[in-house]
What we know:
Elements: H1 12-28, H2 32-39, E1 46-51, H3 57-68, E2 72-76, H4 90-100, E3 103-108, H5 113-121, E4 130-135, H6 141-154, E5 165-169, H7 176-184, E6 192-196, H8 205-213, E7 218-221, H9 224-227, E8 233-236, H10 262-267, E9 273-275, H11 296-314, H12 318-324
Parallel strand pairs: 1-2, 1-3, 3-4, 5-6, 5-8, 6-7, 8-9
Helix pairs in contact: 1-6, 1-11, 3-11, 4-5, 6-7, 6-11
The protein binds phosphoric acid mono(formamide)ester (CP).
Amino acid sequence: MFHVVNTDVFDRQVLDSLCRLTNVVRSVAKSREGARFLQETLPSKRAMLYFTQPSTRTFLSMNNACHILGIRTNEIRDPEVSSEVKGETFEDSIRTFSSYVDLIVMRTPEAGYAARAAALMDKIPRPGPIINAGSGKDQHPTQALLDIYTLERSFEDRGGIEGKTIGMMGDLRRGRTVRSLSRLLRHYRDVRIVYIAPAAYEMEPDIKAFLSEHDVPYTETTRLHECLPELDAIYVTRMQSEHDIDGEASGGVDLAPFTIGTRELDLLADHAAVLHPLPRGPEIHPDVDADPRAMYWRQERNGMWMRVALIATLFGADAEILDAAHRFE
Ligand code: CP
């Protein structure tokens, strides 16, 4: 693993290793000595956080993950304050970042840019890893990692993700989180996916073809209440109205039948988990937050620890952390 452009770099062994390391770093970081040890892991590294599409938690969790490992961070969050406004090409901008930093974490409104940056890195004398922190409607591989980790933790007393039925609801057509998570779930035996979406926002054919190719069973429905009792987890997403084109007015879609409130919680199994990549719109009522099945606030914090594990692994520091962990128990 060098670049993380899409979920293809993660097989089951890598996923299990990253989940294990995430558990270790969150435990090590609890003590002052452990936090100091982690900060001394990669102090000579520098990272560029290049986010030209809005972000709160991916940006903050990547930034803090770097700091936890002693990595110094730089950021551009608005192309208007970079030399791109003077006409510098995307490739020249990335190459320029690589002159100063060892890692580039990037989010873009369109798909394909992280792949272009990775291809460029593979050709230059001073390459560094590229992490895709969200590419248009296409992929959000590190979100899928933290989602896998959160699901594994939610089911740690029930055999993990294998054998579970996972619902995904909302704007599935334009949801990069559900696309990436669907792809990763193929690594877990006997998982079944239930897609729940308004007809115009159902999952794209490429992901359904991918699941069929990998023998992952899925069903599609518009009837949330009918399928809630069979779910072990429901992954709720918001309407991605920022991707509206040609007069599409997705903000006007009636999402009431695709909403989780206290009535829906009554239909959900006691052990089930409610996830959401956040930010949320009206699709999860704030009254759900206090329910023990609501995992989304833990999920966003899990993102920071999973990204610590990922970055440590990209720089080959995973073995050192695992070897030293017992000192901080
Ligand atoms: N889940 C997620 O990507 O959130 P942000 O857009 O706030 O980074």
